[in-house]
């Protein structure tokens, strides 16, 4: 998948297993478990580019909903509740989307 060679397959599997049930996703737990929380700012910019599927320079709600599928093709979509909470946590300027600096701050939070 998109993060192969960037993050450990074992860490990704563990992170996904930790949020396999609906409404169990915690971005803080996931970022730590998959290894993103320990990455440098430059590495997080690369991760952001992977998640920003439409290359708009922002991660919008639909991209957040499918967030886990960036890590494994068969991963579940986030629920509407999880997507809204994830967006609210990352959208520090209130524009309804997450920019690269907001993403970096969210991962490191």
UniProtKB/TrEMBL annotation:
**So which domain of life are we looking at?**
Eukaryota
Q: Does the keyword Ion transport apply?
A: no
Keywords, ordered alphabetically: Calcium, Metal-binding, Muscle protein, Repeat
Record-stated family: Belongs to the parvalbumin family.
Q: Which PROSITE patterns match?
A: EF_HAND_1, EF_HAND_2
Q: Which positions in this protein are listed as binding Ca(2+) 1?
A: 52, 54, 56, 58, 63
Task: Provide an example Pfam family for this protein.
Answer: EF-hand_7
GO molecular function, a single term: calcium ion binding
Q: What is this protein called?
A: Parvalbumin
Tell me the ranges covered by the EF-hand domain, including all copies: 39-74, 78-109
**PANTHER family per the UniProt record, alphabetical:** PARVALBUMIN (PTHR11653:SF12), PARVALBUMIN ALPHA (PTHR11653)
